[in-house]
Amino acid sequence: MNWGMIDRYAKSLIREAGHKIRVSFFNTIDIESKADANDLVTNIDRGIEQFFIKRIRKDFPDHKIFGEEGFGDQIDSLDGIIWMLDPIDGTMNFIHQKRNFAISLGIYMDGMGILGYIYDVMNDDFYHAMKGEGAYYNDERLPALESTPLELAIIGVNASWVAPNRRIENEPIAKMVQACRGTRSYGSAAIELAYVASGRIDAYMSLRLSPWDIAGGMVIAQEVGAIATNMKGEKPHLLGQDTFIVAKPKLHDELLTNYIQLK
Ligand code: 2AM
Ligand code: CA
Ligand code: CA
Ligand code: CA
């Protein structure tokens, strides 16, 4: 497999898609709700996914595509080459803020992440990695992450998990919030993963993410030594939704052991 060629192809496709998204702000954006009133999708999410799929199917007919908006393939096994795509990660930010959203893409072979991309479209910030070849922020090689103690750590966590909820014990999470240096919530799982990989935050966690949210970021995180698992400490399963935590080495262990208690 010529991964170098696929890498160049994917990067150019992502940049072209980013351009289309930036131009889309000059037109009307149609907004709809999916599973609930705050689960939003737009014609741009759908159009961008279709743009990727049309190109990939034409140029790599034996590859499969697993995308959030459902125009890709039905995926029930990780065999072969699969492009895991979120055309816009952070749709709520896309709609409300017109920034802080990303194109997220991971290319996997037989379940192993080979290429990973997170493109923060409005900042023109590109995070990318190839397995074994290191991770990059634009043209800058990202250094290996070093451990940070919790009291010096910034944790990416959504405030809703600190309030009573049916998925996680909120008291230990509240303790974590008090023990760490600060918390952040950016509203795009992919961007938060990119921030962990580039050392801007020290950990990120979410109770429900889909394969396309994390597939690209996991390849990037792996290259700098971040640990990415589900909240049981296992490899996140990439065929459906799962819990997720990515963090610097020792911190990952400390958070899972002392602060994360699933119901
Ligand atoms: P999205 O914008 O592609 O839907 C926001 O907190 C983060 O969680 C985003 O990465 C968002 O991705 C994701 N997200 C939003 N709603 C979700 C849902 N119902 N299930 C899983 N992930 C979701
Ligand atoms: Ca969505
Ligand atoms: Ca997403
Ligand atoms: Ca999305």
TrEMBL record:
UniProt superkingdom: Bacteria
Enzyme Commission number: 3.1.3.25
Alphabetically ordered keywords of this record: Hydrolase, Magnesium, Metal-binding
Record InterPro entries: Inositol_monoP_metal-BS, Inositol_monophosphatase-like, Inositol_monophosphatase_CS
Protein name per its UniProtKB record: inositol-phosphate phosphatase
Organism: Sporosarcina contaminans
Cited SUPFAM superfamilies: Carbohydrate phosphatase (SSF56655)
Reactions that this protein is recorded to catalyse: a myo-inositol phosphate + H2O = myo-inositol + phosphate
